[in-house]
Automatic annotation (TrEMBL):
<dbReference type="InterPro" id="IPR036291">
    <property type="entry name" value="NAD(P)-bd_dom_sf"/>
</dbReference>
<dbReference type="Pfam" id="PF22725">
    <property type="entry name" value="GFO_IDH_MocA_C3"/>
</dbReference>
<feature type="domain" description="GFO/IDH/MocA-like oxidoreductase">
    <location>
        <begin position="135"/>
        <end position="255"/>
    </location>
</feature>
<keyword id="KW-0560">Oxidoreductase</keyword>
<dbReference type="GO" id="GO:0016491">
    <property type="term" value="F:oxidoreductase activity"/>
</dbReference>
<dbReference type="Pfam" id="PF01408">
    <property type="entry name" value="GFO_IDH_MocA"/>
</dbReference>
<dbReference type="InterPro" id="IPR055170">
    <property type="entry name" value="GFO_IDH_MocA-like_dom"/>
</dbReference>
<dbReference type="InterPro" id="IPR000683">
    <property type="entry name" value="Gfo/Idh/MocA-like_OxRdtase_N"/>
</dbReference>
<feature type="domain" description="Gfo/Idh/MocA-like oxidoreductase N-terminal">
    <location>
        <begin position="7"/>
        <end position="126"/>
    </location>
</feature>
<dbReference type="GO" id="GO:0000166">
    <property type="term" value="F:nucleotide binding"/>
</dbReference>
<protein>
    <submittedName>
        <fullName>Oxidoreductase</fullName>
    </submittedName>
</protein>
<comment type="similarity">
    <text>Belongs to the Gfo/Idh/MocA family.</text>
</comment>
<dbReference type="InterPro" id="IPR050984">
    <property type="entry name" value="Gfo/Idh/MocA_domain"/>
</dbReference>
Length: 340
């Protein structure tokens, strides 16, 4: 889908994820990559040359202040999401931030308030929500084919990244729940319309990374919904293989998205009802492309957008509650932006 006027996007950092999460979708939608800055000029130059960014600037602040940039994309380390989201909102920019929106509930509250004050559009990048795989699970609940919601299982796991990876750093707001488990929790929260409301935490437990006592290697949370349905949200950042499944069990049947986080790798939804078993394949077009299309349609045409700063705050509040219940501290915040 091409909008009448392309988005004018500024990129903070030269993260590898940006090629998948932003560059490809922007090209598909005909949007402009106006500016980029990185920790070093060389990294920014290389990123711009490879991905067709129009110009390289000297700092993140310069990207935010560029009058031609209307949307700031923030894929930085977790600890830098909050500070630079706040800086971009204070400059009157729209913001598309990788999850999580901030390091903890206090900071997410400030992001929510800053977005309201700015009157601009803030969105936390839970891209999976826009893909037909997730939409199909919601359709199955909405149509009644699965009956009343009884149980939800989310499992998001991966082999361990290197020990030097920022995801193992407490000062950089790392941990399995921040990197992976936020998908597990958010996917369960989106089922509120078919469960009588949002889930609440029943209990949580987790295990620390060896040598990093406050950084969770894995965390399991048990949830309960107002209608009596239960939820199990698991994440593991040192698992034997990749698991990113979402299983919805109803009174008349069940459905499982084999890989709801990366449907471009596996787009199957497996269904089991009284009528028998069947498999639906919903397409491997990138969930990030669907996400940017929805974001652009909202900015240009006022189309509905299911994610905002309030939703991000609700998720972060649940993350912090899980951490405290499992015996971990909430992630610390970075109080001021690095020069970038």
């Amino acid at each position: 889908m091409t909008t009448a006027e392309p988005l004018r996007i500024g990129i903070l950092g030269a993260a590898r994820i940006s090629a998948l999460s932003l560059v490809g979708p922007a090209r598909a939608g005909g949007h402009r990559l106006v500016a980029v800055a990185a920790r070093t000029r060389g990294r920014a130059d290389a990123f711009a040359a490879e991905h067709g960014v129009e110009r390289v600037l000297g700092s993140y602040a310069e990207v935010i202040d560029d009058p031609e940039v209307e949307v700031v994309y923030n894929p930085l380390a977790n600890s830098l999401h909050g500070p630079w989201n706040l800086a971009a909102l204070a400059a009157g920019k729209h913001v598309l931030s990788e999850k999580p929106s901030a390091s903890n509930t206090e900071e997410a509250t400030e992001v929510r308030d800053a977005a309201a004050k700015a009157g601009t559009v803030f969105m936390e990048g839970f891209h999976y929500l826009f893909h037909p795989v997730t939409r199909r699970l919601h359709e199955l609940l909405g149509s009644g084919e699965l009956g009343e919601l009884r149980h939800v299982e989310t499992m998001v796991a991966m082999p361990a990244p290197p020990g030097s990876d920022p995801r193992w750093s407490l000062p950089l707001a790392g941990g399995a729940l921040m990197d992976l488990g936020c998908y597990s929790l958010h996917a369960q929260r989106t089922l509120a319309p078919w469960a009588g409301g949002l889930p609440h935490l029943v209990t949580a437990r987790g295990g620390a990374r060896q040598g990093a006592p406050d950084v969770d290697e894995w965390l399991d949370a048990e949830l309960a919904f107002p209608n009596g349905a239960t939820g199990s949200a698991r994440c593991h950042m040192a698992y034997g293989d990749v698991r990113m499944s979402l299983r919805v069990v109803g009174s008349r049947g069940e459905a499982t998205a084999v890989n709801f986080v990366q449907p471009h790798l596996d787009d199957r939804v497996l269904m089991r009802t009284a009528a028998g078993d069947r498999t639906e394949e919903l397409g491997k077009r990138s969930s990030y492309t669907y996400q940017l299309e929805a974001y652009a349609a909202h900015l240009r045409h006022g189309a509905p957008l299911p994610l905002d700063a309030e939703d991000a705050l609700t998720t972060m509040s649940l993350i912090d509650e899980c951490y405290r219940t499992a015996g971990f501290p909430p992630r610390p915040r970075t109080t001021a932006p690095a020069s970038g």
